[in-house]
Amino acid sequence: GNKKCDSRGALIVLEGLDRCGKTSQCSRLISYLEELGHAVESWRFPDRNTGVGQMISSYLANKSHLDDHAIHLLFSANRWEKRSLMESKLRSGTTLIVDRYSFSGVAFSSAKGLDMEWCKAPEAGLLAPDLVVYLDISPEKAAERGGYGGERYEQLEFQKRVAQSYKMLSDATWKIVDATLPIEDVQKQLRQIIMECVLTCQQGKPFVELWQ
Ligand code: FDM
User: Fold this and answer.
1) Which domain of life is it from (predicted)?
2) Could you tell me the distance, in angstroms and rounded to a whole number, from the CA of residue 4 to the centre of ligand 1?
């Protein structure tokens, strides 16, 4: 029904290669939804503010070395430590726009050669996004944008393997947006796509868990 207590927020995830424009598109989406009067929060993974997040941050800055499996599990743990807060926010009606999620986890680790099914396993039981939007750009074009900050994964050859992994992971439910279009055009498409999702969730779409 239309009772207020039925309405929940949407879990919306943006994925894509480094330099695809995810972060600025996310913040524009937040302003847009706020202007429309929606309860909305900007989230990102890794969340570097937790204890686990600080270990991840130091790994990404090349300040520590960790086994590929170990860092994979830390990225996953970083999502698990936010799971209950995520669910309560959504239940209370707040929409979450999330910059990277489990798909980054699997795409980046499997790009190192880890088995994809092994990579997916610790994600099982996390909340499944109501919508995944992939901001599509070739690794070469992304590299041309420059500004790779020098973190561990910001290298063309590695980003090429990440792109292949994303392709294997994606399914028919993903919305693919051409990230090489002008910023305003990308934003326009994103707004249309996410509003549809926000409305379905308001109408009480049930929660689903990864990994299907
Ligand atoms: N990354 C991100 C992973 O390798 N696994 C994960 O689970 C997540 C969420 O961390 F290169 C990688 C992707 C990226 C790096 O991400 C840091 P940001 O978006 O640049 O903070």
Assistant:
1) Eukaryota
2) 36
- The verdict on pTM exceeding 0.80 is yes
Residue nearest (by alpha carbon) to ligand 1 atom 3: 105
Residue by residue, DSSP assigns 60-77 as HTTSS---HHHHHHHHHH
Chain CA centroid to CA 196, Å? 18
Neighbouring CB atoms inside 10 A of 31's CB total 11
- Residue 108 CB–ligand 1 contact under 6 Å: yes
Q: What is the pLDDT of residues 29-79, one digit of tens each?
A: 999 999 999 999 999 999 999 999 999 999 999 999 999 999 999 999 999
Which of 20, 73, 100 has most ligand 1 atoms within 8 Å of CB, for mutation? 100
